[in-house]
């Protein structure tokens, strides 16, 4: 019995040792598996960070690669401003490199230089109109011309800044885009203000009414640009289009109040207004349809794509309206309200 019990005890001890060893082995295996998973996660995270750093450097920050241009698949989403422009993109650049890129040949070069030219043009016109010509006009007329040209200069310079620094970061792109839209709004406001100012020269009530309405629309359009409001881009664009279309109302009102085409002033200036709408409408149509690159993707990446046409037509439209404004000034210097035949008075 003693031997038997000892054997039994020995066997039991052996079984207990095996169970302990089994538990230890299982815990060790679980620990090894967990440690392996953690190591894999760490390696994966390190690889992701390394790949992100590699990609970041590959699109601009590497000094040896800084002037390299990229295809649309290689750049971040915020730089892809047109799905039909497939190449010629700058990488993510610092401020110094963004300025240097003005002199590179990229898909932004014409966009930048077209409005640098526009800015210089309107500065020259300001000097010519206010200093060289020495027009003997009332102060308010000179102020109106100065405001118009200053707004045009602002539109040009903020556009240049946007297209120059839009590749610096997504935050910078969004900020400069807001300034770009502000420049467009300022030009629209100055165009309306100058047009209403001269068109309703002889009717103070109507002039004040339309100046107030276009100013209120300007405030609305600008408030929609506030980032915290998170307004949809299509709504912002629709606001600008509606604002531009609103100009038809004072134009028709002015035409009717002046007696229609029988009035020589209407015959002189109504075609100018129609011409302005024709140029602006053509520019906007090209802008939204992305012609011609829509049908020839990749063929107009550097020269001839829609945004370049948009820029050049904007400069043309603003210059055209400046010329119209100078015609208004000259007309008002040589004619009084009595000379405006068939003017219909709305005063009681």
TrEMBL record:
Q: Name one GO molecular function term.
A: metal ion binding
Tell me any Pfam family this protein matches: HlyIII
Alphabetically ordered keywords of this record: Membrane, Metal-binding, Receptor, Transmembrane, Transmembrane helix, Zinc
Q: Which GO terms describe its cellular component?
A: membrane
The record lists the membrane-crossing segments as 112-131, 143-162, 174-200, 209-229, 268-289, 309-329
Q: Would you identify the family this protein belongs to, as annotated?
A: Belongs to the ADIPOR family.
Membrane topology label: Multi-pass membrane protein
The residues that the entry says bind Zn(2+) are: 163, 307, 311
InterPro entries for this protein: AdipoR/HlyIII-related
**Gene for this chain:** LOC108733437
Indicate yes or no for the key word Chloroplast: no
Q: What is its main location?
A: membrane
PANTHER family on file: ADIPOR/PROGESTIN RECEPTOR-RELATED, PROGESTIN AND ADIPOQ RECEPTOR FAMILY MEMBER 3
Where in or outside the cell is it found?
Membrane
Protein name per Swiss-Prot or TrEMBL:
Progestin and adipoQ receptor family member 3 isoform X2
| Species this chain originates from | Agrilus planipennis
């Amino acid at each position: 019995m003693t031997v038997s019990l000892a054997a039994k005890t020995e066997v039991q001890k052996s079984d207990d040792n095996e169970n302990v060893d089994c538990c230890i082995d299982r815990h060790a295996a679980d620990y090894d598996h967990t440690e392996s998973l953690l190591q894999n996660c760490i390696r994966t995270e390190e690889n992701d960070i390394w790949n992100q750093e590699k990609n970041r450097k590959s699109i601009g920050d590497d000094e040896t690669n800084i002037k390299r241009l990229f295809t649309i698949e290689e750049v971040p989403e915020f730089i892809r401003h047109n799905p039909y422009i497939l190449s010629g993109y700058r990488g993510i650049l610092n401020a110094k490199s963004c300025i240097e890129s003005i002199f590179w040949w990229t898909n932004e070069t014409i966009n930048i230089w077209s409005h640098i030219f526009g800015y210089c043009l309107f500065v020259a016109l300001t000097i010519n109109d206010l200093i060289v010509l020495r027009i003997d006009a009332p102060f308010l007329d000179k102020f109106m011309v100065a405001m118009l040209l200053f707004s045009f200069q602002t539109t040009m310079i903020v556009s240049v800044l946007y297209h120059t620094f839009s590749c610096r970061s997504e935050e910078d792109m969004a900020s400069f885009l807001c300034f770009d839209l502000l420049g467009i709004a300022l030009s629209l406001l100055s165009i309306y203000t100058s047009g209403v100012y001269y068109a309703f020269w002889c009717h103070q009530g109507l002039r004040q009414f339309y100046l107030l309405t276009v100013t209120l629309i300007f405030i609305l359009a600008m408030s929609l640009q506030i980032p915290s409001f998170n307004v949809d881009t299509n709504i912002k664009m629709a606001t600008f289009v509606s604002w531009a279309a609103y100009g038809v109302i004072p134009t028709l009102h002015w035409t009717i109040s002046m007696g229609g085409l029988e009035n020589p002033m209407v015959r002189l200036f109504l075609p100018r207004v129609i011409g302005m709408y024709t140029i602006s409408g053509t520019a906007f149509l090209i802008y939204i349809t992305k012609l011609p690159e829509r049908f020839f993707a990749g063929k107009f990446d550097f020269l001839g794509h829609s945004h370049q046409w948009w820029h050049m037509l904007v400069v043309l439209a603003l210059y055209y309206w400046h010329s119209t404004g100078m015609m208004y000034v000259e007309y008002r210097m040589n004619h009084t309200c009595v000379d405006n035949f068939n003017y219909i008075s709305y005063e009681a």
